[in-house]
Amino acid sequence: MAVSLQPFKRGLAAIALLGLALPALAETTVSDAWVRASVPHQQSTGAFMTLTASSDSKLVGVESPVAKTVQVHEMTMNGDVMGMREVKAVELPAGKAVTLDPNGLHVMLMGLKQQVKEGEQVPLTLFIEDTKGGKQTLQVQAPVRPLNAEAGGGHDHMHMNH
Amino acid sequence: MNDLYTRRAVVAGMGVLGLGLLAGCSPARGLEFKYGKNMSNEILGRKFNLKDPQGNPRTLSSFYGSMPMIFFGFTQCPAVCPTTLARAAQIRQMLKGRDRDLFQVVFITLDPERDTPEVLDAYVKAFDPSFTALTGTPEEIAEVAKEFKVFYEKVPAGDTYTISHSSTSYVYDTRGTLRLSLGHSLNAKECAEDLVTLMEIC
């Protein structure tokens, strides 16, 4: 992920340098973005990433050319029941890394226009607003990981192959 | 993995001592699971009548001789279903020889309207080619869910819907008696340990 974001970060850095005289611009960075592969004719899949905003902001929308509808959902466990609900905005407190992963908040790509295959890159556009009304649009190329990819690098699976 | 073998050796040793244990699947009282719940005395999941993706009718008796681990989900599920299927694939890799052959993962869709047989088959087999999926009419699925006391409900999302549902996996012995339930929070190693405990008595 870092690789595909680099040119963008450099661009941001350049803008930041140019704009020294301007009011401080809220800036959000994205890392470890990925999309879970789908099988043919599967209608939706998830996108995951870590967002860090420089000042208090909100993720207010996501778009992608691969899906008809993109929403942020929150997964909750209530006893053994997995609950799912749509979230209109995700709070991004200043300086705090907010992770969108399969076990909590995540982006749902719904109404897939085609199969999403391992190794491809899925373009995502993130719409972010800071508390002062400043708007930022982030373009992310999220690599597609296999259908059985684990969340966050396999937290409780690290010790299993000894 | 080593402790699994050790455990097996100990349980096998106990089996030789206790002759009763050699007579096939023993009564429930001998079963002590470390992580999962002993379901031997629960009146749950005694029957189902569904179809596999090839259209063959499948009932509990279709799985006699294997140890099915059944759970419910839908392919558009972003979280619990892929994690549970990935865990099931890891469990299968941890089981050896006969135990691995006995283990049969069965994924029952709670979304028969959108999960076509083709999608279902490709989905479960992406995790492990040995996995199978079952589907039915919405009414048949509702009946099976009721039989398992599995909760599920459609949640509107935009112009479509997602599904909230129970995430527990259910394991049967080779004679079709429900024996064990494994919660979503257990890892593959914990599940495999309990499965070996069950496989030792059958």
TrEMBL record, chain A:
Source superkingdom: Bacteria
Gene3D superfamilies attached to this UniProt entry: PCu(A)C copper chaperone
Transmembrane segments: none
SUPFAM superfamilies: DR1885-like metal-binding protein (SSF110087)
This protein's record includes keyword Secreted: no
Alphabetical list of InterPro entries matching this protein: LpqE-like, Lxx211020-like, PCuAC_sf
Residues spanning the signal sequence: 1-26
UniProt keywords, alphabetically: Signal
Protein name: Copper chaperone PCu(A)C
Automatic annotation (TrEMBL), chain B:
Domain of life where this protein originates: Bacteria
SUPFAM superfamilies: Thioredoxin-like (SSF52833)
UniProt xrefs under Pfam families: SCO1-SenC
This protein's name: SCO family protein
Alphabetized CDD domains for the sequence: SCO
Family classification: Belongs to the SCO1/2 family.
